[in-house]
Write a structure and sequence with these properties.
This protein is an alpha/beta fold. Among the domains are: 58-268, no CATH class; 457-566, Gyrase A, domain 2 (2-Layer Sandwich), CATH 3.30.1360; 571-682 and 703-716; 740-928, 3-Layer(aba) Sandwich (Rossmann fold). 42% of the residues lie in helices and 12% in strands. Helix 1 (58-90) packs antiparallel against helix 4. The chain is elongated. InterPro entries: 5peptide_repeat (IPR001646), CHAT_dom (IPR024983), Pentapeptide-BTB/POZ_domain (IPR051082). Keywords: Membrane, Transmembrane, Transmembrane helix. Residues 668-904 form the CHAT domain. This is Pentapeptide repeat-containing protein.
């Protein structure tokens, strides 16, 4: 197939050529002479006008010069005619005195005009001059005995004609200025010609003024008067013309500099001077290149300027730019120079502007429209992009470090490929940094913002009223039926700032939806506040409103829960280990997906044999258990360590722990497993919230603390859980509750203090806790059967039989139960909505495995004996994080990490808490219960 060819006019002289309506896509006009060419309505997409010379032809220049001279002569004629005619009519029988007075009056009016125009706009100046003229008119009417109104009318005529003279002269001068492209020599010659032209016009006007006045007065004037009147009027006209020429030059210079008072004159002058220049009127100049082109006296009005490059273009200010973004001098300067560091463009229309490789560092673009613009390679470091409209904007290779992106509006057409960024801020004034610590790896910025581009972010700085939000969502959804409008996530950012992310359709007007949601939320909030003020008159009414508020929050959370698309940005990683054990190695299947969705990536690999892992873990386990002293939530058999100091036991435990950590990393960084690890690193971002499920039936591997893998140091929001390879999702009864229902079993407390656990549970917000203190088996069984529970909690003594992986827990001083002995009751509890079991007791792996067989969604347990103080500290930290709205996995990781503060007294406390997860279930947040 033949390659497409484009018209090549490079370096050619195309003066006056007619290209109207032609399709010149991709044409090359570089270095061409296109003065006077007509491109009206032409299609010039991707055309190259680099270094081209546009504007007026030589004929056009001389035509405008001649027009200038004609207009100046006409102005001079009026300047001579007006005062002579006025004075002659008013004082027909005086030879000198009254004519001199008339001259003084006219000159005084001109002086008032001059003084006023320097500091005021034209309308104000006209008003003052007319008032002055009326005053002189009445005064002269009294002096001459004539009717005052007639005198005033005549003076007004004089003033009007004088002002007309001034305007014509200004216009003439501007035309001359616009025509100067032919060079300074022609400009000087024209100036010298224009001055005598004005004098000639003034003299002609004087003579004709006398002749016309004589007709009006019946021709009865003395011959001497006629001669002297002409002489005096000619001298006066010449004198006034000289003064006015200099003054008009001053005004013209102010116009040339862009004085706002004369902007309409400048537009008029540009319109006239572009009549014979190059025309791009209504042309399609998408992606055209005008860099370094000379563009004076061209017409770009109504042209389509999308990504049109005007870098270093000359004289663009002297072009007709109506209905384009370049009509704004600030935007025009930015388009030409591409330098705007620390400049302010709040609310500006930059739609379609070409700012490739521009310096926009620390520029304020708040609420600006940069849709369809191109910022390829631009520097936007520290720029404020709050609420910008960036639909179909190209940011390829742009530098975004430290930019503020609060509520910016982007969609699937926004190009973010290759963005260079260390970190950004999601809230103004450098708040809500992303990533929270460290910097983005290559490509992470793009992945982060492309995940959620079809959303609208609502930022509430004074907390969130869920009922008002629910009302606003409902109303806006009804008014915008095709906009999707599904709540995606609610994030508590601290300091009473809440961010609600709402899914919207890809083609929806996000700015409109954002404005409607914000407005309707404020209206609903005011309505609720008024309602609360009216109804909060008694304690009973307060309780009713509080419960209603919680029910509304529950309803809103249910809107978030049903679909996978509304689960936020959590990633789910599954490592399924099958066909092997630690002695033979494992076959591994890696799956990666978004929370609640089918995996979008799957790969297979292997892990090598690691029999030494189990051996070293047993060595560490022995040393760890021997090092424990004080209250434990387990009964450990006494060992012969009486002759060994506790410090020696700690050292032995440290040695085994160091070896264990080393072996874990050697195993998971092995060459055999490396392809899967590299795929993890490629598909995941350090800023991602990640749940990792280790699916295995190997009882030894379940005990190994795999969170020691250096992968988790790089991914601070990742947490690992153990899981079975066989699982099932049980149908649950749906029951809306205003509070989280917790069944707390406080079992055998001999030798430990579980009252602190009780105090922590009692302080939970929005929770209804039922305590069973050392209950009998039948009482526990009945409670599990009769009520619907969200969380099951146990504090007391527990243990696991290592060989059989059977866990038991002591519910009182005499009774010890296994999960199997409560199987029916626990199965019923799970069917009625039990989602989470927390066993804040020792050695709970057996309990976790047994509960997993009943398909409980998730369980938290301790992998080894736990000191009483460690158990209490973990429970406090976990419940604080989880009840404040933080995800379950991140709450556990945070609570586990905080235990490091106790490790000088209780070594390796951070190794103890573990999650056991049903892969078919998605962990609920606290408010979702």
């Amino acid at each position: 197939m033949a390659l497409a060819t484009f018209p090549n006019f490079s370096g050619q002289s195309l003066q006056g050529r007619d290209f109207r309506g032609q399709n010149l896509t991709g044409a090359d006009f570089s270095n061409a002479d296109i003065r006077g060419a007509n491109f009206t309505d032409a299609i010039l997409k991707n055309a190259n006008f680099q270094n081209a010379q546009a504007g007026l032809t030589i004929k056009g220049v001389f035509g405008l010069v001649l027009l200038t001279l004609l207009v100046t002569e006409l102005s001079g004629f009026i300047s001579g005619f007006a005062p002579v005619f006025t004075g002659y009519i008013l004082f027909p029988y005086s030879v000198t005195t009254d004519n001199l007075l008339a001259l003084i009056i006219v000159i005084s009016i001109i002086i008032i005009f001059a003084i006023s125009i320097i500091n005021n706009d034209l309308l104000t100046t006209f008003f003052r001059v007319i008032c002055t003229a009326i005053f002189w008119g009445f005064l002269l009417g009294l002096m001459t005995g004539k009717i005052a109104g007639i005198a005033a009318g005549v003076i007004c005529i004089a003033v009007t004609t004088s002002i007309a003279y001034v305007m014509f002269t200004i216009l003439a001068f501007l035309i001359f200025v616009q025509a100067q492209i032919a060079g300074i020599i022609i400009a000087i010659v024209t100036l010298f010609i224009m001055f005598p032209s004005i004098i000639f016009g003034a003299t002609s006007g004087t003579v004709i003024g006398v002749a016309v006045a004589e007709v009006f007065t019946g021709g009865d004037q003395l011959p001497l008067f006629k001669v002297r009147a002409v002489q005096e009027a000619a001298i006066a006209a010449t004198f006034a013309t000289i003064i006015l020429t200099f003054f008009i030059s001053y005004i013209s210079w102010r116009i040339y500099l862009g004085d706002a008072k004369f902007i309409w004159m400048q537009k008029l002058a540009i319109a006239v001077s572009t009549l014979f220049g190059t025309s791009f009127k209504q042309a399609d100049l998408t992606n055209a290149n005008f860099s370094n082109a000379y563009l004076k006296n061209i017409n770009l009005s109504n042209a389509k300027l999308i990504n049109t490059n005007f870098h270093l273009a000359k004289k663009l200010a002297f072009c007709q730019l109506e209905n384009t973004i370049l009509v704004n001098p600030i935007i025009r300067d930015l388009s030409v120079n591409k330098k705007a560091n620390n400049k302010v463009f709040i609310g500006c229309n930059l739609k379609g502007i070409n700012l490739d490789y521009a310096d926009m560092s620390y520029a304020d673009l708040t609420e600006a429209d940069i849709s369809q613009a191109t910022f390829v390679g631009a520097t936007l470091e520290g720029a404020n992009l709050t609420k910008v409209q960036a639909i179909a904007t190209n940011f390829q290779q742009a530098k975004f470090t430290a930019a503020c992106l609060e509520s910016w509006n982007i969609d699937s057409t926004t190009e973010l490929t290759g963005v260079i960024c260390d970190y950004v801020y999601l809230l103004n004034h450098q708040q809500e940094r992303r990533p929270s610590s460290g910097i983005f790896a290559a490509g992470e910025f793009t992945k982060l913002f492309q995940v959620a581009i079809n959303t609208v972010d609502l930022i509430f700085r004074n907390g969130l009223n869920s009922q008002a939000l629910s009302t606003a969502l409902t109303k806006v959804r009804l008014e915008n039926e095709d906009s999707l409008l599904a709540p995606k996530s609610i994030e508590n950012k601290g300091d009473n700032v809440v961010v609600v992310r709402v899914d919207v359709a890809a083609d929806v007007n996000k700015a409109k939806i954002h404005a409607e949601l914000t407005q309707n939320y404020e209206l609903a909030l005011k309505s609720l506040e008024a309602k609360y003020q009216a109804e909060l008159k008694s304690k009973d009414e307060q309780i009713v409103l509080y419960r209603q508020h919680q029910a509304d929050l529950k309803e809103l959370m249910q809107m978030i829960a049903p679909t996978a698309k509304k689960m936020g940005d959590t990633k789910l990683v599954v490592l399924k280990l099958t066909q092997g054990n630690l002695n033979t190695g494992f076959s591994v299947t890696l799956q990666i997906g978004l929370e609640g969705e089918h995996p979008y990536f799957e790969s297979n690999g292997k892990l090598p044999p690691a029999s030494e892992l189990a051996l070293i873990y047993n060595q560490w386990q022995t040393a760890y258990r021997q090092s424990l002293q004080g209250s434990l939530r387990i009964k450990i058999s006494e060992t012969q360590v009486t002759n060994i100091s506790r410090r020696e036991l700690f050292n032995e435990c440290d040695t085994a722990a160091t070896s264990l950590k080393k072996q874990v990393n050697l195993w998971l960084d092995s060459e055999l497993f490396r392809p899967l690890k590299e795929q993890l690193l490629e598909k995941l971002n350090p800023s991602d919230s990640i749940r990792i499920l280790l699916q295995t039936e190997d009882s030894q591997l379940r005990r190994i603390p795999l969170h020691l893998w250096n992968f988790f140091e790089r991914y601070p929001q990742a947490e690992i859980a153990i899981s079975s390879t066989a699982y099932e999702k049980r149908e649950k009864n749906k029951c809306v509750k205003s509070q989280v229902k917790i069944l707390a079993i406080l079992g055998d407390s001999s030798g430990i203090n579980i009252q602190k656990d009780r105090l922590l549970l009692e302080e939970l917000p929005n929770a209804e806790v039922t305590f069973l203190v050392e209950p009998q088996r039948q009482v526990l069984n009945d409670e599990l059967w009769l009520q619907s529970w969200d969380i099951l909690f146990f504090a007391g003594h527990s243990s696991t039989q290592a060989d059989a992986e059977i866990g038991n827990f002591r519910i009182n001083s005499t009774d010890s139960l296994t999960i199997a002995e409560l199987k029916n009751a626990l199965t019923k509890a799970i069917e009625q909505g039990l989602h989470l079991a927390i066993f804040n007791s020792c050695d709970g792996l057996g309990l976790a495995v047994n509960l997993a067989d009943l398909h409980i969604p998730q369980m938290i347990f301790m992998r080894e004996p736990v000191p009483d103080k460690v158990a209490q500290e973990f429970l406090k930290n976990f419940l604080t994080e989880f009840s404040s709205g933080k995800p379950l996995y991140l709450s556990l990781r945070s609570a586990r990490s905080k235990l490091q503060g106790l490790e000088n007294e209780f070594p390796y406390a951070t190794w103890l808490p573990v999650i056991c997860q049903n892969p078919a279930e998605i962990p609920l947040a606290w408010y979702q219960f």
